[in-house]
Amino acid sequence: MNINHHPDITTLMAFSAGTLEDPYATVVATHLAMSEGGRETLRHINTIGGALLNAEPEAELATGSLDRLMDALGDDDRIDVTPHDARGTVTGDVPLPLQRHLPNGLDGVRWKWTGPGVATADLAWGKDGRSRLMLLRVGAGRPVPEHGHGGQELTLILSGAYRDRFGIFAKGDIADHDQDVEHQPIAEPGDDCICLVAVDAKLTFRGRLMRALQPLFGI
């Protein structure tokens, strides 16, 4: 698989530190499961991070700190490291970090019409109540209306491809955009383009009609 687009280095550093909200961590982990080059970059970041931690002066822990930490871990059944599992494992059409959200694969997704040639499916929300993980399907050859982003958006291509002013994004590629980016993705001919997307704000459409209809579309 020839992957040409990767997350921004600051996004990978946040992933390594465990500070990304779950939707974003899931997109990054899914990309890394598809990209050996991405996993190698993450290994370098982890090595640098570990060296920096080792260089920090030691701090004395209060008596019983370790016991309290282990008790807290044992009592919390919500702890789930699956989104941060960046091993290169893909079963069928769903990489390992995404399988908990898509146990029946992409064929089992229940799509919601979102606009001409466009459908979405919600998968999860972050603990912050703003970040959202969803699937986006764009019909082959169809455009997504020109738009900007109210915050950070990570878009990973699971199948098909699209092109915009930044180039062609195909399977395994990830687009890492912030509020300064405006673009109009157009799905390549042939197959529908299916993407895994994490966002923390509504899109900002340029067209007046799309702005008026946005509450119906929910994106």
Keywords:
single chain; 219 residues; alpha+beta; Arc Repressor Mutant, subunit A; Jelly Rolls; 2 domains; six-stranded antiparallel beta sheet; three-stranded antiparallel beta sheet; 14 strands; elongated
Q: What number of domains?
A: 2
| Relative strand content | 25-35%
Q: Write the element-wise H/E pattern from the N-terminal end onward.
A: HHHHEEEEEEEEEEEEEEH
- Number of helical segments with 4 or more residues: 5
Distance between the termini: 30 Å
Number of strands: 14
Whole-angstrom Rg = 19 Å
Which structural class best describes the helix and strand composition?
Answer: alpha+beta
Query: Which shape, going by the Cα principal axes?
Result: elongated
Query: What is the helix fraction of residues, given as a range?
Result: 25-40%
